[in-house]
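Re: beginner question about structure tokens

> Can someone show what the tokenized structure looks like for a real chain? I only ever see the sequence side.

Sure, here's an example I had lying around. Input first:
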Amino acid sequence: MFLESFKITSLAVLQSFVLGAVGYLLMKKQILGHEGLSTLSRLVVEVTLPVLIFCQLIKDFRFDLYPNWWIFPLLSIAITIAGLIFGAVFVSFIKGRQHKWQFLSLVGFQNSGYLPLALIVAILPKEGTEVILTYLFLFLLGFNLLVWSVGVYMLSFHAVKKFELGTLFSPPVIAVLLSLILVFFGLNKFVPATLLKPLRMIGDCTLPLAMFVVGGNLAAVRLEHVDKRAVSYIILVKLIMLPILGLWLIFKFQVSYLIGLLILIQLAVPPATSLSVITRHYKKEDLLISQGVFFGHMASIITLPLFLSIYFSLCVIK
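And the corresponding structure tokens:
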């Protein structure tokens, strides 16, 4: 059972990374370029992903079907806090104040959107995919609020003097909130199919484009003078200890199958590529972020299938 699960999950992870490899090669061959990568990233974040979220939620979400919908934004906060707590245990082994903050950011914030989206689509049948995607988009509501507030504060090393409320309301967050409002008032029923169909086609572009962005970001990272100790601790905490914690909690509290899968994926995926974007935007020296993101994604090719296989081998669908 474990070997069969490992084969299935390995192939699913490989499919995701093949898409990422295309973006990596486009960047390395300078077909895409830094400006093109930034444009592609904006296209995903500001257009295709919000459209996908909007179409998914107004079609499949109902408050009576998901009475505990508010749990998922809170769950994202809990997972981030868990990462920061685990990171704090090891931060004393990291030298340098700025190194420490970047280390904590890498273990606290995961690739919560693009990679889980690709994994879910590759692993699950369509009926399971629709439900867990709803969970994922609700989860991202909390995560995006955190990474663009707490994450920015940590990586800018307290250079942000004034809190900017607008940074919290990214297009994906607005898409979730707008969808929930429309569903709450029943207005989603009046969105015409002639509009939804082309919107769905736009949203369906998200997965490949998002993985191109991930691969392009990995190709753009600088890996001079790799801090082997810090990278080793990032892999240990982020890709091994946190998934082990997730498995223990899931089975101890008998979490339902799809919610447990979402929790495990979020705890097992590598550091968020958006951390590199934040570092560049605030013109901070990239001491550890690129190394953690790159080697974290490389190591997850092995660790992700391992923990997903353990989950599928032991979990009882309910």
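Each token stands for a local structural state, so reading them left to right follows the chain. The longest helix spans residues 126-155.
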